[in-house]
Design brief:
The protein has 174 residues and is an alpha+beta fold. It has 2 domains: 1-33 and 133-174; 36-128, SH3 type barrels, CATH 2.30.30. The protein is 40% helix and 22% strand. It has 3 helices and 7 strands. The chain has helices spanning 4-33, 109-114, 138-171, and strands at residues 36-40, 44-48, 57-62, 66-72, 77-82, 85-90, 94-97. The strands form 2 sheets. Strands 6-5-4-1-7 form a 5-stranded antiparallel sheet, with no helix packed on it. It has a two-stranded antiparallel ribbon with strand order 2-3. A hairpin with a 4-residue loop joins strand 4 (66-72) and strand 5.
């Protein structure tokens, strides 16, 4: 006899797998929301692929340039976002900048229309970080769908085998 709990167990496993991948992605989005920014304070500095002067510079930054950064290494380098990739700049050549987004106050449309648009300042500018994809990654959605499909096919195959066996028993000569 086919055990329907096998189908339910498979679907449950696939759903748990999909939910776990969603939780991991949500944690990554929450981490990405905490943006830190730094500003270059020397006339010109090298941006390097790895945190050491021994590595070739992949670019340069001038005084006043700002970058989103992820952290500070023990050897004294900021890890920054540079041209869609991670790179490093010497900590002594940059300083962290406080990032604050403009406050959202409830104003009537008339009050908003009467005011001039505020100029973006260093502290109110939206930080430049690569956009994170929202929702479950397509890969995990496909994996979950494939697992569910495989369990359904397994269930159907077992059901057919059971029916064929019952048919065989009915027509079997005694």
């Amino acid at each position: 006899m086919v055990k329907p709990f096998m189908l339910y167990r498979g679907i449950g496993l696939a759903l748990i797998l999909g939910l776990c991948m969603g939780v991991g992605n949500a944690a990554a989005q929450k981490k990405a929301a905490k943006v830190k920014k730094l500003r270059i304070i020397v006339e010109e500095t090298a941006i390097r692929k790895y945190p050491s002067d021994m590595y070739k510079a992949i670019g340069t930054a001038k005084k006043g340039d700002s970058f989103a950064y992820t952290g500070l290494t023990q050897s004294g380098w900021y890890q920054i976002h540079y041209q869609g990739d991670l790179a490093y700049v010497k900590a002594e050549h940059a300083k962290p900048v406080k990032v604050t987004l403009p406050s959202k106050t409830a104003e009537t449309p008339k009050a908003v229309a009467s005011k001039e648009a505020p100029a973006l300042t260093e502290e109110s500018a939206t930080p430049m970080v690569p956009e994170e994809k929202k929702g479950l990654p397509v890969f995990w959605i496909v994996v979950t769908a494939v697992v569910i499909l495989l369990y359904i096919l397994y269930f159907i195959r077992n059901l057919r085998q059971q029916r064929e066996f019952e048919e065989y028993l009915r027509h079997k000569p005694s």
